[in-house]
Amino acid sequence: MNKIGFLGALLALLVMTVFVFFNFPASWRKNKVFMTLVIIYDIIGTICGGIIFTAFRSLPNAWMKVFVSGWGTIYYITTLLLSVLFCLRILVKAVYLLIRKLTKKEADGKALHILKDEKLQVIVFVITAFVICTVGFIRIGNLGETTYEVTCEKEAEEESLTMLFLSDVHAGAATWPFTYEKMHEILASSDADVVFLGGDICDETTAEEDIQMLKEALSGLNPRYGIYYIYGNHDEFEDNFTGKQMEEMGITVLYDEMVEIGGVQVIGRLDPKDDALSWEELMDKCSPDPQKPLVVLTHRPEEFRAISASGADLALAGHTHGFNIPQFLGSNLLEDMYYGRKKYGEMTAITSSGVSAWGIHYKWPAKSEIVKVKMTFR
Ligand SMILES: [Fe+2]
User: Fold this and answer.
1) Of the candidates 198, 192, 196, 195, the residue with the CA atom closest to the CA atom of residue 160
2) Where a domain ends, among 109, 139, 169?
3) Which residue from 26, 29, 103, 301 lies 20 to 30 Å from 141 (Cα-Cα)?
4) What pTM did the predictor assign?
5) Distance 171 CA to ligand 1 centre (A)
6) If you measure from the C-alpha of residue 203 to the centroid of ligand 1, how many angstroms do you get, rounded to a whole number?
7) How far apart are the first and last CA of the chain?
8) Domain's final residue, options 139, 154, 177
């Protein structure tokens, strides 16, 4: 994460922490024991969050990593969830006051009691936030397969092509060690003709041992058309670091280029942060045959209209981590789509919620998935 982004995120978290604190009942805030516990929870949470995004890979042992990742995640997610819940409470109160003013009527006794019982509301909110957080903490990396079938009106060498697309492994702070084993299990038992790694396979928290587990997860696979990788926004592009790791594993890296497998053209895009070509420049460079099927691998689900207008039949993306609350309320809204399958003209776009998430060890209600696409040709 760049310094401005990091400081911005830290400031936002600080504002939310203060907002949450001042939404606790006044009597609680006056209680010294309560205040001390909340301040300790917040300070340790902020330090852990800071370490996750700056020095996680340098932590000396696995237990320290679990502690930092666990506390940082719980603090971050509960603070975000409580902020959302307190905002909703303010909204509900404002609507209630407006209705009361317009109708000049009081709510009935029971509804009024719930609206006015601040302590009950906060206890319910805190329990809700911790339960959701725990569920998301456990669920991340509980990997499954999501299957899609796509029909293409063009001809290829065979009747169909089965692809596995996995993105956003974020090997490091957010990924359980057993996720790699599950990943290997799915990949090794699959009948896929080709495997695509859709970016953010590593990130800023990836340490040597994570690379090792990743290598084991991707070893011994033998899809007949091979394994291809494209860069994501968190993969380390400097000195082609992640690309070299992939090449060492026998994986082909697509740097804004096109390959052909079984009569199907596959374009792999670089991420915009890595001096990528514009879509128009890339089309000029690759000049795909309009008679042959065209699959586009792009880490971010962006520019789908332009990609479709160029004659692509299928676009595969990751990046968004799906409908992951409350992170979904961030940059996902700026993307073309955040999850699932969508038609853009003749083209089918599929965006995966990915295997894991960035830094924060949490996935809910989004699922942890590997996407399987069976593409059938004319
Ligand atoms: Fe990403």
Assistant:
1) 192
2) 139
3) 301
4) 0.90
5) 12
6) 9
7) 45
8) 139
